[in-house]
Amino acid sequence: MxxxxxxxxxxxxxxxxxxxxxxxxxxxxxxxxxAEEMQKILELEDAQLVDVRTEREYEESHIxxxxxxxxxxxxxEEDIAKLDKEKPVILYCKGGSRSAKCAKKLEDAGFEKxxxxxxxxxxxxxxxxxxxxxxx
Length: 136
Known about the structure:
With 136 residues, the protein is α/β, with parallel strands linked by helices. The chain has helices at 2-27, 35-44, 55-60, 76-81, 97-108, 120-124; strands spanning 30-33, 48-51, 61-63, 67-68, 89-92, 114-117, 132-134.
């Protein structure tokens, strides 16, 4: 009987934790988007396109009309403070990790519309979905 009660309490605790996680993601202002969705947003809205990779990565290739704000730069906080909180922001990096961290910081800073390119530039660079500028 003790095992059943303990097991039931464990399941209840797990259900509560999972419920909190789900509610948090529903309230998040960050939306994962595909390359196609990104292009539509850029056509329809005055969005800020931000590459959060290093300057070296950015120089090798980047999405046209993006600005580079290196997530690992000592001036990162100052640089994102220069973005307009009222305008949508589209973030991308190599694989999605840095842009996800940046998205969280922007959300905490009060940005209203935050989009994160799902899978980063690596997922989409060999498709015709992105307009890339590549160093020759």
